[in-house]
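User: Here's a structure from my thesis project, written as structure tokens. My advisor, Dr. K., wants to see whether a designed sequence matches the one we expressed. Can you design one independently, without my sequence as a hint?
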């Protein structure tokens, strides 16, 4: 039987590959934030699965906050317009904030968010993104921790959506031509 997911997407990174890379990122973050009070700032909704796996790969007493940001009005192109849809529950002032993002595509969303965060006077801000698509960059964003650098594909799964669907795939896949 061909499942819905098999008809729609080709696997790019399977679950095992994602978890192995996240373990490496977690170990690196654990070393870098020794003695610091770390806050993982999960950018909703795309980073929901990534942040839960990453948090468990970090051996430090961290806190987790959620920030809802929306730059899409459906489809596969960034609108460039960013809205904060959900804000954090605890002030970020004097916290060591590690922004956890699913993907940096044009970079427009992250440029807006980093500007917004700076105004809250955290002790430090670094960025961890599971995926980066440098070929699509419209603004330069320095990513401190990158999971995987990918070509210009529209990817879905493991939190990433196409029109709010497919976030629940346990792997990251590429939409098949004609599936969009
Ligand atoms: P940017 O502002 O163009 O960097 O895009 C930021 C947001 O768009 C990301 O945080 C994702 O939520 C979404 N996005 C960008 N590329 C993709 C993709 O290939 N698949 C699914 N969502 C994407
Ligand atoms: Mg996102």
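Assistant: Designed independently from the structure alone:
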């Amino acid at each position: 039987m061909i499942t819905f997911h098999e008809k729609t997407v080709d696997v790019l990174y399977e679950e095992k590959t994602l978890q192995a890379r996240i373990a490496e990122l977690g170990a690196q973050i654990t070393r870098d934030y020794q003695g610091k009070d770390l806050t993982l700032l999960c950018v909703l909704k795309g980073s929901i699965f990534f942040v839960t796996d990453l948090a468990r790969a970090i051996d430090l007493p961290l806190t987790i906050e959620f920030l809802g940001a929306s730059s899409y009005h459906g489809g596969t192109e960034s609108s460039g317009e960013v809205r904060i849809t959900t804000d954090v529950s605890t002030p970020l002032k004097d916290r060591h904030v590690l922004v956890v993002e699913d993907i940096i595509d044009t970079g427009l969303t992250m440029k807006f968010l980093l500007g917004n965060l700076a105004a809250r006077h955290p002790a430090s801000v670094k960025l961890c993104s599971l995926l980066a698509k440098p070929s699509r960059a419209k603004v330069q964003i320095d990513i401190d921790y990158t999971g995987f650098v990918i070509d210009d594909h529209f990817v879905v799964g493991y939190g990433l959506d196409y029109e709010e669907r497919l976030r629940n795939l346990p792997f990251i896949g590429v939409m098949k031509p004609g599936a969009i």
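When you compare it with your expressed construct, this may help: The first helix runs from residue 4 to 8.
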